[in-house]
Amino acid sequence: MQSFYDSVGGEGTFRQLVHGFYTRVREDDLIGPMYPHDDWEGAEDRLRWFLAQYWGGPQTFNENRGHPRLRMRHNHFVIGEKEKDRWLEMMKASLDEIPADQLDDAHRAAVWDHMERVANMLINHSEAFPHPHA
Questions:
Q1: pTM
Q2: Which of 12, 113, 119, 122 has a CA-to-CA distance to 85 between 20 and 30 Å?
Q3: Structural domains present in the chain
């Protein structure tokens, strides 16, 4: 059985998705400052590796970074509803740039569901529960 990763075009599709996202992040005033301005390519690689691995592609993330531990890796950033919404907005715009013949509706919905779940999981700040660095 073909993996999700291979079904959607493999490396090329994930490279396109992540590059489109990072093109937006570089210019963003809210979450752009959270990213390493001296390592844009590295940040892009890490997200692409993570997504590829999650969807059945190469295990490059684990080989280079170990277990993803997303909450731990993002905990030092203040991530509230605004940050989550902006991240999703930019990811959605990038996802929307991928043609339907490359990413059909069912695969697109699965990717989007994953993005929403991860973004919601990473929220670590609210008025009721402020982040220590907020």
A1: 0.91
A2: 12
A3: 13-122 (1.10.490.10)
